[in-house]
Amino acid sequence: xxxxxxxxxxxxxxDAAPPASAPASAAPSxxxxxxxxxxxxxxxxxxxxxxxxxxxxxxxxxxxxEGQPLDFKELRRKAALIADTGEPMRASAPSDIAEEFxxxxxxxxxxxxxxxxxxxxxxxxxxxYGERNRPAFDAVNDYDCGAADG
Length: 150
Hints:
mainly alpha, 65% helix
């Protein structure tokens, strides 16, 4: 979020604004144009919201690991919010995180689809905390559009 504010001009860079010489040169505009284009994509604009939603969902699902009951209605609501936030982001996901992002969306959907009476906790927990998907969750959680190189 701080990166988005800095790119939008909400940082303290107003005290040292190089007026005519720097914007005209190719190097600074090339350095600032790529991050700005990335920052305004649907993916980058909504990334922090998506990350918070995934963390909230994961934390609640994780309670099942410790034998706590799951609130199916609340988990379905959170999963729907994550899907509603994530679907428009899918098309503009940077190539260096796109696969992991799709994996997280699919895992949340799979987990939520198992929220039904008689389901085993493992069916809800495994898509989120299982060995196969966990690296994607970590990558998406740690991703920062402002630091993206791809």
